[in-house]
Design a protein that fits this description.
single chain; alpha+beta; five-stranded antiparallel beta sheet; three-stranded antiparallel beta sheet; 10 strands
Length: 535
């Protein structure tokens, strides 16, 4: 069923918002009353995908004000009213602004925010997504008047092209629902017909470990979804002890009271999440978006949220992390990698700072660390992820008692299953290509770094000297052989090298360069190494 009109939609999103942006201030230019900084911005690893933006200090100041909600002290250089046109001051400020740019582009949450994207890439992030979403929602309500908007939930999630509204059903006035509108993503490989079939399947799904959809509607470029609203918020809200309806930057950038879960909760929630993943995989579906904000807990039962993200093709929050690891190259290995992050956060109250992780703080149960090592350690990232079934059989989860012990399954029609298999293959193919390009870029960067190192320069210099001496010795041997031959034939002329120039003599007596010297000079000139000339 599709109730969304095509015209207001901005078009299918081909841009991957998780692709990291890097920014380098190339130069500054001083005008009559202010200084502008010329910034080179690059998306991903290819220098071909770069552009310039020009920003003033006041633009940086506005950006920083917008990011104050994060509760993090960012290193923006202070204002200066007098002497701010001085050349040395401008150079110092440029260095400070570069440090500031590095800090926001390397932060996993701040770098994905719309204000940062607009600051660095205004051409691709100029659309008013809130207005577009409101138009879509208004059209939906005109077609189905039983729904009523209570309030927009601004910046509830990290995804730029997804907007949320709290709504109610007029026939069930006490119950609250969450309506979300989202652009389709670059990994949407199902046809429109197959996508609608898959969304219908998920809407009618009723399982204990997957959060149900009450309604779904898709168009060529976007989707509108309705599901029950959890007043308690997500599992991350409970770990961070924050109010569910606040901005995600305010909640998660610098939580003050976050705390890991008790061991029994870790075991129970982890096992339930794994059962949900197994159910998805056995049905031929794919997820790729598991994290603590996509898990809700109700009566000690974990349910996965946004299961439809995989087939809608939107990029995963952890994509920048697993694209670095070539062994994570299937949809199941992506889910296992994401589960490792979730387990870490449930254990320590925060996500890992980076992956691989080889040093784990002590926890009450060694089985937790054992599972974490099997997913997040350097060895695991190099050799590959365990399967979901293997994780269920680990001592940490195998003895967990589940309320819902019956065998669960998702019945997928054979034709749709074939389409899902094909879409999954296309998704993995795009991932493989991105990983290949990233691997090539890392190898080239390492080679350039090694070639330019002082140690390598010294090694090449020594090698060049050895080659020079070896060439000189070989030339001397050749001349000796020719001299012996000339002596045997009765020639009495002194040995000379035909290629050796004879410099003019200041005393009137011609001076000839000896053959060994001439040979060394020729060899050294051919190597462009003047340091080999004899003194």
């Amino acid at each position: 069923m599709s109730l969304l009109e095509k015209s207001p939609a901005p078009g299918r999103m081909l841009l991957d918002d998780t692709s990291p942006l890097t920014a380098l201030i190339e130069a500054s230019q001083t005008l009559q009353s202010h200084t502008e900084y010329i910034i080179r911005v690059q998306r991903g690893v290819s220098s071909d995908n770069s552009w310039q933006v020009i920003r003033r200090y006041s633009d940086f100041d506005i950006l920083n004000s917008s990011l104050m909600v994060c509760g993090i002290s960012l290193p923006l250089p202070p204002k200066k009213l007098i002497g701010n046109m001085d050349r040395e001051f401008i150079a110092e400020r440029q260095r400070g602004l570069q440090t500031y740019l590095d800090s926001i582009t390397q932060h996993p949450l701040i770098s994905t925010s719309l204000v940062v994207k607009k600051f660095l890439d205004p051409n691709n992030y100029s659309a008013n997504y809130a207005e577009i979403a409101l138009q879509q929602v208004s059209m939906f309500f005109r077609s189905d008047p039983k729904w009523e908007v209570l309030e927009p939930l601004r910046d509830l999630g990290w995804r730029i092209r997804k907007k949320y509204f709290l709504i109610k059903n007029k026939e069930q006035s006490k119950e609250r629902f969450l309506l979300s509108w989202v652009d389709l993503g670059p990994d949407k490989f199902l046809s429109d017909k197959d996508l609608q079939s898959a969304m219908k399947l998920l809407t009618n799904l009723s399982t204990p470990y997957l959060c149900p959809l009450v309604f779904s509607s898709t168009s060529e470029s976007s989707a509108l979804l309705i599901r029950p609203f959890s007043e308690k918020g997500s599992l991350r809200d409970q770990i961070c002890k924050v109010k569910p309806r606040e901005s995600h930057l305010k909640k998660y950038c610098n939580p003050k009271k976050s705390q890991g879960l008790e061991l029994e909760q870790i075991k129970l929630y982890g096992r339930q999440v794994l059962e949900g993943l197994k159910l998805i995989h056995d049905g031929g579906l794919f997820f790729g978006h598991l994290h603590a904000s996509n898990v809700i807990v109700d009566d000690d039962v974990c349910r996965l949220v946004d299961v439809e993200n995989g087939i809608l093709g939107v990029p995963s929050f952890l994509r920048p992390a697993f694209t670095q690891l070539r062994k994570i190259n299937t949809t199941e290995s992506i889910d296992v990698f994401c589960f490792g992050h979730l387990l870490y956060e449930m254990t320590y109250g925060r996500p890992p700072d980076s992956v691989p992780v080889d040093l784990f703080p002590s926890v009450p149960h060694s089985g937790v660390v054992s599972v974490l090592q099997s997913i997040l350690s350097t060895e695991a990232c190099k050799s590959g992820m365990p399967t979901v079934a293997a994780l269920i059989q680990t001592p940490l989860f195998s003895d967990v008692h589940l309320k819902h012990s019956e065998k669960l399954q998702i019945k997928v029609p054979s034709r749709l299953k074939e389409a899902l298999t094909s879409a999954k293959g296309s998704l993995e193919k795009r991932l493989h290509e991105e990983q290949r390009l990233l691997h090539q870029h890392r190898r080239l960067t390492r080679a350039q770094s090694h070639y330019g190192s002082e140690e390598e320069k010294k090694r090449r210099k020594i090698l060049a000297r050895k080659k020079c001496r070896q060439s000189a010795c070989e030339n001397e041997e050749d001349v000796s052989v020719r001299n012996n031959n000339n002596s045997g034939s009765g020639a009495s002329s002194p040995p000379t090298c035909p290629s050796s120039p004879t410099p003019p003599s200041t005393t009137g007596t011609p001076v000839r360069l000896s053959a060994p010297v001439s040979g060394c000079l020729s060899s050294c000139l051919s190597l462009n190494l003047a340091l080999c000339l004899p003194v």
